[in-house]
Amino acid sequence: MMTSKPLRMLTLGDSYTIGSGLPADDSWPYQLTSQLRQKGIKIADPVIIAQSGWTSLNLIEALNSNPPSGSFNLVSLQIGVNDQYEKIEPSFYAENFRDLLDRSISFARKGAEGVLVLSIPDWSVTPHGGEFDRSQVQEELDQYNAINLTAARLRGVEYIDLTSSSRFAEQYPELLADDGLHPTWEMYWNWTGLIQPAALSIFRSS
Predict the structure, then answer these.
(1) Number of domains composing the chain
(2) Which of 57, 114, 177, 182 could be joined to 110 by an S-S link, Cβ 3.0–4.6 Å?
(3) In CATH, what number is assigned to the domain containing residue 98?
């Protein structure tokens, strides 16, 4: 008797994808995987292509040098916070993001239907953000998120707003790690709750 192969998930991004400074199991991709398994979804451990500090160009270069093998039931893309931090021209980010979104679609077995774009969190509300002009950072992040939202809509890809949830850290500092910048597992758990409905729908239709 043959058994079906586990479903596959590819997550592309930066420090928010790997859960910088936390055990891997606390990152949102692993928390999501655990929750989906509890709901009866047979899913392999996530394939994560992400590193702290990566810009959209860094992610493109990583995919060029070491592309993922095979296809995936779900592909997530969350990139741009370091583009904003490094003052990358928005038009350059827009070009790179469209490239990455097209690649994400090509990696997904069902094309655009199997892709999720996740918005860039707002780090201006963190203690580290207090060292900068908070209003300017927030304005720039909103601009970058408008770029990735537009790209997602044009390609028929579902877009999940994590930015609003990330701003809870201003009132609840326990959602932030000791570095005063990156989320704790609780913040990622909140994000997982926002991502799970769409992910569950994608996997159940696979």
Answers:
(1) 1
(2) 114
(3) 3.40.50.1110
Higher pLDDT, 15 or 171: 15
Q: Is residue 97 part of a domain?
A: yes
Tokens of 105: 């679609």
Residue 56 and residue 97 in contact, taking contact as beta carbons nearer than 8 Å: yes
pLDDT tens digit sequence for 105-142: 999 999 999 999 999 999 998 888 788 899 999 999 99
Would 1 be classed as within a structural domain? Answer: no
- What distance in Å separates the CA atoms of residue 36 and residue 40, rounded to the nearest whole number? 7
pLDDT level of residue 2 (50, 70, 90 thresholds): very low
Question: How many angstroms separate the CA atoms of 21 and 10, rounded?
Answer: 21
Mean pLDDT along residues 82-96: 97
* 146's tokens: 């408008």
Report the alpha-carbon distance of residue 158 to residue 165 in Å, rounded: 17
Read off the tokens for 112: 């655009």
Contact 160, 119 (CB under 8 A): yes
> Containing domain of residue 155, as a range?
9-204
Closest by alpha carbon to 12, among 71, 79, 83?
79
Gap between the Cα atoms of 36 and 69, Å rounded: 23
